[in-house]
């Protein structure tokens, strides 16, 4: 059991940090960090009390008045112990973050690699609160101090950017990956409220459509986890009021319940076999103590017939929850592929490359660009695994080598 647990931890670390090798020779775009010096005026701090931050690559040419904001991802913390541990890492403090970030994929400034957004103002919002930029509380027992101020961090960054040109934006796209993709659902309409009425404002979530699904032991593991995050960090008051008036607050942390109330045009980019959800929602470690799913989790080719059937059921549930949006949204878009992946917009190989994933012969970059600029309807849904031969599925192959 100890050996299995150690392998699982090592595999998860690789899963969360691995990116496919780059296949391009163009110079990498390196962007410096900007600390939000005025953040203390509204009580906006990272978990450890450090200043929040972002990375801004200025727009140019025709894109000088267009803005793309990208929430960074990185999971959540749901109790004092895990949040204290997080506070001493780059996930909870700007003191430990890299001061320079490489911009690629949707953040690239290269027209060949990012044709629709390359010359926009592109901003990466660093994640240091542990509740998808949505909490607003504090823990202080006289010995330990934690700031759960994600909502204020969001506001502080926006207030810092408005006089730098965001306040005069003509076009804007709020985006995010993973926990940052969830933040996009939570802050989409609020983002619109800061910008000019005549601005074209839309939102994109990448790998942020976390499902309220039962795990293989039939428990609501993710629901209980989100409930503890929301309770600890004071999230409830910052969730959609129309949603919380009819549901428990922790349910409104799930996109499937808050999406119907979002008024701003929205695009959902997700894998139907999202690796994070596969490992933590469908098959969390506690639901598989004997490791029966170990090989399947890290290499889909090793899944048996029953496990594949379970995965297909997870995909069907995702598509069922998205059906009202697919049918009724006239301004929404989606790209649901069948790759074992998590976050596909910031990696150049999955965003736009000669061998990048495609659905109906559209790359992710093309589908999102077509939707944002109204060139065509973009609601792409892939066939079930293993039919898509454009998928990389490299993560499982790397992990299994550990």
From TrEMBL:
Q: What Enzyme Commission number does this protein have?
A: 3.1.1.-
User: Known InterPro entries for this protein?
Assistant: PAE/NOTUM (IPR004963)
Instruction: Indicate yes or no for the key word Iron-sulfur.
Output: no
The alphabetized UniProt keywords are: Cell wall, Cell wall biogenesis/degradation, Hydrolase, Secreted, Signal
The record's Gene Ontology biological-process terms are: cell wall organization
Which residues belong to the signal peptide in this entry? 1-25
GO terms assigned for molecular function: hydrolase activity
| Protein family | Belongs to the pectinacetylesterase family.
Entry protein name = Pectin acetylesterase
């Amino acid at each position: 059991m100890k050996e299995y647990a150690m392998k699982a931890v090592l595999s998860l670390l690789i899963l969360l940090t691995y990116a496919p090798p780059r296949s391009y020779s163009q110079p990498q775009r390196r962007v410096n960090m900007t600390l939000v010096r005025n953040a203390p005026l509204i009580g906006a701090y990272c978990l450890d009390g450090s200043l929040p931050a972002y990375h801004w690559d200025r727009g140019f040419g025709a894109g000088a008045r267009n803005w793309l904001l990208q929430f960074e991802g990185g999971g959540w913390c749901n109790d004092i112990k895990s949040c204290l541990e997080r506070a001493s890492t780059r996930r909870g403090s700007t003191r430990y973050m890299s001061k320079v970030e490489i911009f690629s994929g949707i953040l690239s400034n290269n027209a060949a690699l990012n044709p629709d957004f390359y010359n926009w103002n592109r901003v990466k919002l660093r994640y240091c609160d542990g509740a998808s930029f949505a909490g607003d509380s504090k823990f202080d027992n006289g010995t330990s101090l934690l700031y759960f101020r994600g909502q204020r961090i969001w506001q502080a960054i926006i207030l810092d950017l408005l006089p730098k040109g965001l306040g005069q934006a003509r076009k804007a796209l709020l985006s995010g990956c993973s926990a940052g993709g969830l933040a996009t659902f939570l802050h989409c309409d609020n983002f619109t409220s800061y910008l000019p009425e005549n601005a074209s404002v839309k939102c994109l979530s990448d790998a942020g459509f976390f499902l309220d699904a039962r795990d293989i032991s039939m428990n609501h593991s993710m629901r209980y986890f989100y409930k503890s995050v929301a309770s600890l960090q004071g999230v409830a008051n910052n969730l959609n009021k129309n949603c919380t008036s009819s549901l428990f607050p922790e349910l409104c942390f799930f996109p499937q319940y808050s999406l119907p109330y979002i008024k701003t045009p929205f695009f959902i980019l997700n894998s139907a076999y999202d690796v994070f959800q596969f490992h933590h929602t469908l098959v969390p470690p506690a639901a598989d103590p004997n490791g029966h799913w170990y090989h399947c989790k890290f290499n889909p080719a090793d899944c048996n017939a029953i496990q594949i059937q379970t995965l297909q059921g997870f995909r069907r549930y995702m598509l069922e929850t998205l059906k009202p949006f697919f049918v009724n949204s006239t301004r929404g878009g989606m790209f649901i592929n069948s790759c074992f992946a998590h976050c596909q917009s910031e990696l150049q190989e999955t965003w736009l490359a000669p061998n990048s994933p495609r659905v109906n012969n559209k790359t992710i970059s093309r589908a999102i660009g077509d939707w944002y600029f109204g060139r065509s309807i973009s609601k792409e849904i892939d066939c079930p695994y293993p039919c898509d031969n454009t998928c990389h599925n490299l993560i499982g192959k790397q992990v299994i080598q550990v």
